[in-house]
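Q: Please design a sequence for this.
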């Protein structure tokens, strides 16, 4: 098993493992146990320079000369490698991140399908042509943007790595990817697998390191043509500033405070367990978690009682056990931050109807599924992204009030509507400011379906054919087909 206590993981640059120039090794611990997990090399700015140099060389060399059909074959081969190594990758992710293995298995399945989707989508890349009139003919070319700097967060390191790598590689770009310093192991392993299946040196480079120094250097690097970032809205704003001097292309997938709207005519046998999953999967550490439940007034008291009972029944524990539904948070520090929000909610008048207490056993970074009822949209807990297993529940009077409350935050990533009236579901889908709206189903992201945000949840889209365009430049070519010379000035 590749997961071994005190194993050292190095950077991955130009097709091989590489020591960091500064020699720093970061000690990683398992969030669920607090026990040592591994050591990982931390990149410096000089290592970013090396990775970008390797990526630019591959762009003008082996990878740049790779035919689209060969790019497709390699992406399928990498998907096959993920399947062949799925047990190792799943355990690696669970022990590095702390989330339940049931969630990780689903994420791994999507990771495989991400590569397969973009391997097939390569065939859709192409320009167009048409006569302009007279002897002029126009045609367009699609060319890779160049070197893509990609930054992925700690909550979905394996799946987000594939969200970023697959479209960039399909478009013919080369990549310098910076995973979070806390959770780099699956991305580093994936880079090794990519080399094993035949990706040329420099096509994929993985350089974990601090965001404030190494990440910022990557964003500002003159050899990087595009930045794709998933993370907090505040960091996304800083990346926009840092990327502005080079006029870099940007894709930003940022924070969320997504509503889950329950009408009185909803099927509660579906809506309640689905709503519990919508916030508590990944222990609430998900940007699109439906962390605000809005319930029609006539249903409110009954819903709060039943939902709180469902939240309290979830199994919290060892993330490697198949029965576990809610694993550990990423760290004790983050758990304390989440609990601080719960205390703030109490102070603002919210009622804690489930959870809300720090575990007496201090081992690991666990926090119980928590419900804050009686919340209005002006409260801190309704406005700020808690990023933990905490949901707020508010009442609404009618459809107009539901829409008002749903849109009363600075974010717009995801929303879910539960109703027995199909027309109402479609009306709300048009009026809610969110990149994805689910009607009577809790799921959020599928390969081939564009995913991204409105407002301060970012811009650009992941997972869809539209994503390929974000890694491609369009070049227009205009050619004369006439033997007669042009003489615009009549000379």
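A: Design:
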């Amino acid at each position: 098993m590749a997961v071994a206590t005190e194993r050292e993981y190095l950077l991955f640059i130009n097709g091989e493992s590489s020591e960091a120039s500064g020699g720093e090794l970061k000690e990683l611990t398992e969030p669920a146990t607090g026990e040592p997990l591994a050591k990982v090399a931390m990149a410096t700015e000089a290592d970013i320079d090396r990775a970008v140099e390797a990526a630019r060389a591959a762009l003008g060399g082996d990878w740049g000369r790779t035919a689209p059909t060969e790019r497709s074959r390699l992406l399928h081969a990498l998907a096959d490698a993920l399947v062949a190594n799925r047990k190792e990758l799943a355990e690696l992710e669970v022990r590095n991140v702390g989330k339940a293995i049931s969630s990780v298995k689903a994420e791994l399945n999507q990771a495989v399908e991400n590569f397969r989707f973009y391997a097939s989508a390569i065939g859709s890349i192409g320009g167009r042509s048409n006569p302009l009139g007279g002897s002029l003919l126009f045609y367009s070319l699609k060319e890779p943007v160049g070197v893509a700097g990609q930054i992925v967060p700690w909550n979905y390191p394996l799946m987000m790595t594939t969200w970023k790598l697959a479209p960039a590689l399909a478009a013919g770009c080369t990549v310098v990817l910076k995973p979070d310093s806390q959770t780099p192991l699956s991305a580093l392993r994936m880079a090794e697998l990519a080399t094993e299946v035949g990706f040329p040196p420099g096509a994929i480079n993985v350089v974990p390191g601090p965001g404030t120094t190494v990440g910022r250097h990557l964003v500002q690097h003159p050899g990087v043509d595009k930045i794709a970032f998933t993370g907090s809205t505040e960091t996304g704003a800083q990346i926009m500033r840092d990327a502005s001097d080079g006029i870099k292309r940007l894709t930003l997938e940022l924070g969320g405070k997504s509503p889950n709207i329950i009408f009185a005519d909803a099927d509660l046998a579906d809506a309640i367990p689905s709503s519990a999953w919508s916030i508590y999967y990944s222990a609430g550490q998900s940007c699109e978690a439906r962390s605000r439940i809005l319930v029609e007034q006539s249903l409110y008291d009954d819903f709060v009682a039943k939902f709180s009972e469902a939240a309290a029944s979830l199994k919290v524990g060892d993330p490697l056990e198949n029965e576990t539904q809610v694993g550990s948070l990423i760290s004790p520090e983050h758990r304390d931050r989440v609990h601080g929000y719960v205390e703030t909610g109490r102070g603002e008048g919210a009622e804690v109807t489930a959870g809300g207490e720090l575990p007496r056993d201090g081992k690991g970074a666990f926090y119980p599924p928590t419900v804050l009822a009686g919340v209005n949209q002006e409260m801190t807990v309704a406005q700020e992204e808690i990023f933990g297993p905490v949901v707020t529940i508010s009442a609404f009077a009618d459809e107009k009030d539901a829409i008002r409350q749903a849109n009363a935050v600075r974010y717009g990533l995801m929303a879910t509507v539960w109703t027995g009236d199909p027309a109402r579901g479609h009306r709300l889908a048009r009026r809610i400011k969110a990149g994805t709206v689910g009607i009577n189903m809790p799921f959020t992201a599928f390969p081939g379906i564009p995913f991204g945000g409105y407002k301060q949840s970012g811009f650009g889209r992941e997972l869809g054919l539209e994503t390929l365009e974000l890694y491609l430049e369009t070049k227009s070519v205009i050619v004369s087909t006439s033997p007669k010379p042009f003489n615009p000035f009549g000379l």
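Q: Thanks. Anything notable?
A: The chain has a mean pLDDT of 95. The first strand starts at residue 7 and ends at 9.
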